[in-house]
Amino acid sequence: MSSFDSYRECPKKRERGAPYYLDDNSVMYVARIESMEAQAQIQEIRDQIYGAFPNPKEIDLYRIWARWLGEYGITNWKGIKGEDGEEIPFSRAACREALGDESLRYSLVKHLIEFSSDYSVYLKNQAEEDLEAVKKP
Question: Cβ atoms within 10 A of the Cβ of 95, count?
Answer without folding.
Answer: 22
